[in-house]
Write a structure and sequence with these properties.
The chain contains two helices and no strands. With 63 residues, it is an all-alpha fold.
């Protein structure tokens, strides 16, 4: 009788447990664009003449 009572008590206590999947809400990404794009007047990576040659290409003789 004791075993039956303990089994029923265990079953009753476990029946109250509910397993639910995790719910995650994903919002769309927020894209921030700059209002003003400022370019430097003189860039050290290229000349205004258009005769810039990268060092690797110059060594290969492609410029």
């Amino acid at each position: 009788m004791k075993t039956v009572l303990l089994t029923l008590l265990a079953a009753a206590s476990l029946s109250a447990c509910v397993v639910q999947p995790a719910r995650v809400r994903v919002r769309s990404p927020v894209v921030l664009e700059p209002a003003v794009v400022v370019e430097p007047e003189h860039s050290r990576h290229h000349d205004d003449d258009g005769d810039f040659c990268p060092p690797g290409q110059a060594r290969k003789g492609r410029c």
